[in-house]
Fold this protein.
Amino acid sequence: MSLHPVLAALQHHLPAGCVLTDAEDLRPYECDGLSAYRRLPLAVVLPETIEQVRAILVTCTEHRVPVVARGAGTGLSGGALPVENGILLSMARFNRILEIDVPNRIARVQPGVTNLAISMAAEPYGLYYAPDPSSQIACSIGGNVAENAGGVHCLKYGLTTHNIQAIELLTMDGERLSLGGPALDAPGYDLLAVLTGSEGLLGVLTEVTVRLLPRPHTAQVVLAAFASVEAAGAAVTATIASGIVPAGLELLDNPAIRAVARFMDTGYPEDASAILLCELDGETEDVSGQLEQVCNVLRAAGSTSLQVSRSEAERLRFWAGRKAAFPAMGRLSPDYYCMDGTIPRRHLSRVLNEIGRLSGEYGLRICNVFHAGDGNLHPLILYDANQPGELERTEELGGRILELCVAVGGTITGEHGVGMEKLDQMCVQFNPAELEQFHAVKRAFDPHQLLNPGKAVPTLQRCAELGAMHVHHGQLPHPELERF
Ligand SMILES: Cc1cc2nc3c(=O)[nH]c(=O)nc-3n(C[C@H](O)[C@H](O)[C@H](O)COP(=O)(O)OP(=O)(O)OC[C@H]3O[C@@H](n4cnc5c(N)ncnc54)[C@H](O)[C@@H]3O)c2cc1C
C-alpha cells in the first residue's frame, strides 16, 4: 500500500521516531478520558521544537489534512479524540518549565508541563499555581488552557482563565501569535480570553505564562455530615450567602461516600446522606475566625456532625477521599460516565433531587461528587458497557441532566468542555445565530476548518436535524421540570 503523501512530507520534516503510523503505536492515542469513544488517527506526530510544530501545521494545511492537538489525554469530553484520516499532534515532549519569575510571580512553561509540576517548581519560592483539577498529577497546562480547567480551589482563586497571563500559539497556517502580556488590561479585543477554553479549535499552544500565588499560611477543612442531599445543598447556599469565600466547598452524596470508603480509609461518615468538605485558607488568625463562622452556618443549616482537621495530615486525609472519588467508582461499577454541568447555586437542592428522580427513571445509579461552591455538578452515571444499550441509555440520561442545568439558568459545562460529547446540548444552549458567531470565530483563525474539526460547536444542520429546542436561560422546556 502506498504511503499517504502527507506522511511522506511529515517524515521529511521530523526526526526518525517522531511520526508513528503502526496501528499498535497509534492505539494509546485512540481516545482521551472519555474512553467510550475510540478512533485511530492516520498518524501520531511527536514534535520537539516549535519549528517542527509549524512544519506539521503548514504541511497538513497544504494537504488539507485535519489535526487534533493532544496534551495528556485526560480530557473527559472527547476533545482529543483523533479524527479519522487526520493527524494527532501530541505536545507531550514540550515539557520544560522555561522560567520562574519570582519578583513578578509568574512562570513561563511549555504546554506539555503537567499542572502539578508548575506548583512543584514554584514551591521553593513559597509560590504555587492555584487551579487544581483532580487530574493535576497528569493533565497538561496546554490542555488546562484549552478546556479552561477548574478544580477544588477555583471557588476562591478562579479558573484557568483567571490565572494565566499570556500564551503563544501557532495557527493552522503556521502564524505565530502572542496573546496577553504583563499588564492587567490590553488594547484591542481580549483574544487571550477567546483562546482560553477554545478546545484546540483555534490554534496550537506552544507556551503559557501562568500567575503564581503565595502559599497560604494555613489551611483547614471542615467535614460536615447531613441527613439529606437537599440539606447539604442548602448549606452550600447558606455558606456563600454568609459572605465567607471558602477556598473549596465540595459535596459527596452517600453513594460516593460509600464508594470512597471501599477504596480507602478517609474517616468519612458512611451513614451520612451527604458530606460537605469546606476548606478555609489564609492567615492563621483569619482562618480560625472563619472556621467558627462556617461551623455555625453549617450547624444552623442542619449538619448532623462536624469534624475540623487539626493537622496537615488530617486535612490531606479529608481531601484524599474526594480526590480518589472518580477512581473509586471502579469498585461499584465496570464503567462510569462523568457529567459536567453548572447551575446557579440556589437551585442545588432541587436539581440534585431531580437527578435522583431521573436515576430511578432510567434504572441507572448516579453518584454525585462535585464542586458545590461553584454550582459545578459532576453526576457520575454508573453503567456497564457490556450490557447492550446501556451506554446509549446512559448518554440519554446525561443529556437530560445537562438540559436540566440549562433549564434552571445554568450551562452544559463547567470545566470539562464540549468536545464531541455535548454537541447536541450546544443546540439546546445556543440559538442558530449564536452558533453561527462561534463558527465565524473559528473561520477567522482556521479558514479551512482543519483544527479539531467537528468538536465543540455543532453545525447548524446537526441542530436542525436534531430538532433541538433552544432554551433561553431560566426557561423550562420539559413538562417534568415545571415544578421548579
Ligand atoms: C480523574 C479525572 C479527574 C478530572 N478532574 C478535573 C477537574 O477537577 N477539573 C477539570 O477542569 N478537569 C478535570 N478533568 C478533565 C481533564 O483533566 C481536563 O480537561 C484537562 O484540562 C485536560 O488536559 P489534558 O492535557 O489531558 O488535555 P487533553 O485531554 O490532551 O486535551 C484536551 C483538549 O485540549 C486540547 N489541547 C491539548 N493541548 C493543546 C495545545 N497544546 N494546544 C491547543 N489545544 C490543546 C485538545 O485538542 C483537546 O481539545 C479530570 C479528568 C480525569 C480523568
The mean pLDDT is 94. The chain has four domains: 5-90, 97-214, 218-323, 328-472. Residues 328-472 form a domain with the Alpha-Beta Plaits fold (CATH 3.30.70.2740). The chain is about 35% helix and 20% strand.
